[in-house]
Amino acid sequence: MTLQAVTPPGPDVPALPAPAGRTATPDGDGTRTDTHCPYCALQCGMTLTPAADVAPREFPANRGGLCQKGWTSASLLDSPARLTTPLVRTGGELRPASWDTALDVIAARLTELQAAHGNDAVAVFGGGGLTNEKAYLLGKFARVALGTSQIDYNGRFCMSSAAAAGLRAFGVDRGLPFPMTDLAGADVIVLVGSNPAETMPPFLQHLQGAAAAGGLVVIDPRRTPTAEQANVHLAPAPGTDLALALGVLHATVAEGLLDEAYVAERTAGFDAMWRTVARYWPEHVERITGVSAADQRALSRGLAGARSAYVLTARGAEQHATGVDTVSAWINLALAHGLPGRAGSGYGCLTGQGNGQGGREHGQKADQLPGYRKLDDPAAREHVAGVWGIAPESLPAPGRSAFELLDALGQPEGPKAMLVFGSNVVVSAPRSQRVAERLAALDFLVTADLVLSETAAMADVVLPVTQWAEEDGTMTNLEGRVLLRRKAIDPPDGVRSDLDVLAGLAERFGQPAGRFPVDAEEIFTELRAASAGGVADYSGVTYDRLRAGEALHWPVPAVDHPGTPRLFLEAFAHADGRARFVAVDHTGPAEPPDAEFPLQATTGRLLQHYQSGAQTRAVPELAEAAAEACIEVHPDTAARAGLGVGDVATVESRRGAVTGRVRCVASMRPDVVFVPFHFPGGQRANLITNPALDPTSRMPEFKVCAARLVPADAEPSATQPEAVTQQKPVTQQKPVTQQASVELQKSVTQQESGTQQASGTQQASGTQQKSVEQRETGGAS
Ligand code: SF4
What we know:
- It comes from Prauserella sediminis.
- The protein is built from 25 helices and 30 strands.
- Helix 2 crosses helix 19 and helix 8 crosses helix 12.
- The chain starts with 32 loop residues before the first strand and ends in a 5-residue tail after the last helix.
- The site of iron/sulfur cluster has 14 residues, from helix 1.
């Protein structure tokens, strides 16, 4: 069997062309600013007018296409859900306050808690959507101004497994170690656990060459829109993709398809790896995965016969308690076929969040310093401390990873306060009910956000911050290319940049003037120095080079260095220049199905929404198109549960239950149920997910848990569950809904304009009260 087109690729990728009359004009004519989409790691090029009119532009990542999220991204700039004044909880209510008051309250409370409990009493939580400058300054703020070791970020939930696997195989982790445009020349591309047709539709353009050659292979338990466009779709049982990689690798060796010259010259560790793989002959793997032995052998032959081939992994491979090993298994397969470090072939990871790559390089991870340096490396500490003007010994040790940090909040040995920047952990963290309870147990919670997200609604202080189009900053896309996202419009009155927030707080913590700049370019200049000589060396990247349109992929060790679009062509980054095979074994999901929970629940994304949905749910077009959580199941699975299309169902696991409307999909495996993770309240997919962590990356097992499907006794609810307030009385910690945010915003505007102050305040208060009443009666509104 050879790889051939069993499903013709669609005539068009769903990257929408510019509507008639909306053609981008060049930057510099005073009407349009070249910038990039605020959402995913593709970082599509777009232009923006001062009136916030979006148009796509030619850029290698998107070639003039944008998805629905990109086209509608500007509507959040003047959304009624937008926060435009700081809010401080007083008497149980979030009330408008001045910036000075809000920052003074934060500084006083954090100082008090650190004096009583030590520096680690204050935690910081960042995000993979923050610019490089913000991620860098946040890490510096935590370690220098607060002196805490307790900092991590939500990228731990997305890309850390591929990062760890890439590091141990190649010595360096960069999502794609080649420009994504290289993919166009491939005749075989294997996508493992990736659904770009919904997550980053313009990316499909780069896959069309392989699809036309009959070599686009998608490996996913679901027949996703991407799988629909593939030539071959292999659907292993959830949690068995590691075993599938072992089976294909076994077939490669058994059929004499191993690239022996490459393995001998460029790798190490094959023999140890093979001792494990030898037990995974394809027929055995068929019984584990459900993928036929013939299909495993066909995939091996397809890779061996390809002129140009790539293996690409994404969240489906990573988000397991064995995520690092799963990615390693696919890297082993790529090495066996001689792909990494060969021009026109390779292995890569498709990062998810907008700055998923840069966000993991510059110091907001628990164990990391800028430039991808390790916090426990004495030389790294000395270099970065020198740039920061502090003693190396004053830098804290590595702290807790993301879920462990969230789980420790409010515990006797855990942090008593937390600052959250660019993350909505109430929705996005695993076992989210538990996370909400931990947040509620804090003495003090601060969030910096655009809208009153579900996490912000629990905070004691909420700081309204600028968005992508209102500020300069750099992002690093999924191929390691550093991009300049330019300011196109002024922010609304009352809103400040996260950089201003950190500078204002640092000043209140007694930091010397100038140690925490507010200008993005100035901070980037400092980041360049801090990263110099590191793995992710940005020292040769300047704003001027980016403004001139240079394509700079890190490392860029000098201002006259052209950047490094293709890594590993000469050697891998280990001292001996060889890539490593890593022996990994299949163990299966941390929580296999059983009689009580006979199904396997998996989570993922919808085309219309991004991450926790805090932003995209506030965009009317997107919210209307995907207003609530769906539950995708095979029709027979639904029927066995007494459910039909459109019925409201509950997926239950040992940790909780999520409610949504049934969507029957005939291509689903009958043992799998799918829930998207963008929705709040009782629709949170993470109410059921398993927080079992990968031992290396500390990535939770989002992608599979044992579950059962039952009819629901109420409509899907976006209201915060009661447990959010279990740890604090409602009078002290009162969540408000996003609608309440709108009402609250109205009251602030009225107050600021000096009209109807009393009635405006009453309106906000009344809306809050209503939401609490709804929650206390089950929230079925
Ligand atoms: S969300 Fe991603 S794919 Fe869609 S326009 Fe933005 S960057 Fe491009």
